[in-house]
Amino acid sequence: MSKIKKTTEDALSPIKDGDQVLVGGFGLIGAPLTLIDGLTNKDVKDLSIVSNNLGESGKGLGLLLNQHKIKHAIGSYFTSNRDVGEFYHRGEIQLTLLPQGTLSEALRAGGAGIGGFYTKTAAGTQLAEGKEQREIDGELYVLEKPIRGQVALIRAHKADTLGNLVYYKTARNFNPLMAMAADYVIAEVDEIVEPGELDPEAIVTSHLFVDAIIEAQQVLTKEGVVSR
Amino acid sequence: MTLVLSKEQVQHSIAARVAKEIEASSIVNLGIGIPTLVAQYVEDSSIALHTENGLLGVTDVNEEDIDPNLVNAGKLPVGEAIGASFFDSAASFAMIRGGHVDYAILGALQVDETGVIANWAVPGKNIIGVGGAMDLLVGAKKVIVTMSHTSKDGSSKLLKKCTYPITSIRQVDMIVTELAVFKVINGTLYLIELMNGATLEEVQQKTEASFIVQL
């Protein structure tokens, strides 16, 4: 069966209420803006969103926040969308804050079948409270668990019809990690090409990780997010 | 008495002083704020700048060459150097946590007299952002802190003990303010330089933390 989906709605059909959804991007850079826009039109609630940020105010994941579709957000830096603080203050969203390196490694572990890992990051700080800490070779480490999602929404530059992916500059960020860490992975790309057209040495995400592909309709430009 | 400098001049004086510390062929991660300015004073082309969002080989960019998908940790547009490479966030933080980055230049809200810093949360405000600060603290070979010597109300930012949540139990290596440069050795602050015409008396008066004078 072809992985190429004709509509965003079709691509997003596996997402259901209460799912944990991994969403790529560093702010709006490398965020799957078309898929996020598609979610704003889908009747779904109580989502757990794993993403570095919740977009910006009224943009990217900020749209879903404002629709009250996000129950819990797991990320490293929510400060970039001032609305998140207000939702949090009103008790309308649960937040889990992780250091950025811990978030990315937890996703890598989730995708790689690793049951957890010890990191020095955050050891002895407020963010380690309630977590196991232990000394290894004289240094203090914190135990962190892997992160997985039912669905991942990722952004790549090009896909071939098999689902092999290449990325573009700093829009790569969390995307290849999230592509490995979900049961169902939807990739939004600028261009879909035939197998053989991508250099096998340049492919970052192999096709076995990818379940569905759509072409991007909402793209980030110098002037902001535009429909193409 | 300290020279009267604009806020911008103060920031540039700190950035220029930090740049002098960076050895040839180093890998350097610059934080947001004053640290970003350090790039303007790093002239040695053997030094490579790393940004947490997945680029080694950061350069300035001209207005006409701005690419919305090529940014630094502050989401500001940047360029890519010859020999640059892109990588995912886990690889980027493996570089940071794994001890492959030589210098992290970071801002701070407070520093205590052992060199422990607080730079990610203010009590009473929603604690909703940490980013890469904690990873840089544990992983960079040397950590240099840039900050103003005092808060807006005139109180010292170099304290006996941080009152804000700490970023790491690891002590930083150097602190550069508009008044002074401190080295941290084995949990003790050493005043090694005065900046912008500041006097020892002025630094003593504006510093709550204990330090050893080694001018």
Automatic annotation (TrEMBL), chain A:
<dbReference type="InterPro" id="IPR012792">
    <property type="entry name" value="3-oxoacid_CoA-transf_A"/>
</dbReference>
<dbReference type="GO" id="GO:0008410">
    <property type="term" value="F:CoA-transferase activity"/>
</dbReference>
<dbReference type="InterPro" id="IPR004163">
    <property type="entry name" value="CoA_transf_BS"/>
</dbReference>
<protein>
    <submittedName>
        <fullName>CoA transferase subunit A</fullName>
    </submittedName>
</protein>
<comment type="similarity">
    <text>Belongs to the 3-oxoacid CoA-transferase subunit A family.</text>
</comment>
<dbReference type="Pfam" id="PF01144">
    <property type="entry name" value="CoA_trans"/>
</dbReference>
<keyword id="KW-0808">Transferase</keyword>
<dbReference type="InterPro" id="IPR004165">
    <property type="entry name" value="CoA_trans_fam_I"/>
</dbReference>
<dbReference type="InterPro" id="IPR037171">
    <property type="entry name" value="NagB/RpiA_transferase-like"/>
</dbReference>
From TrEMBL, chain B:
<dbReference type="Pfam" id="PF01144">
    <property type="entry name" value="CoA_trans"/>
</dbReference>
<dbReference type="InterPro" id="IPR012791">
    <property type="entry name" value="3-oxoacid_CoA-transf_B"/>
</dbReference>
<protein>
    <submittedName>
        <fullName>3-oxoacid CoA-transferase subunit B</fullName>
    </submittedName>
</protein>
<keyword id="KW-0808">Transferase</keyword>
<dbReference type="GO" id="GO:0008410">
    <property type="term" value="F:CoA-transferase activity"/>
</dbReference>
<dbReference type="InterPro" id="IPR004165">
    <property type="entry name" value="CoA_trans_fam_I"/>
</dbReference>
<dbReference type="InterPro" id="IPR037171">
    <property type="entry name" value="NagB/RpiA_transferase-like"/>
</dbReference>
<comment type="similarity">
    <text>Belongs to the 3-oxoacid CoA-transferase subunit B family.</text>
</comment>
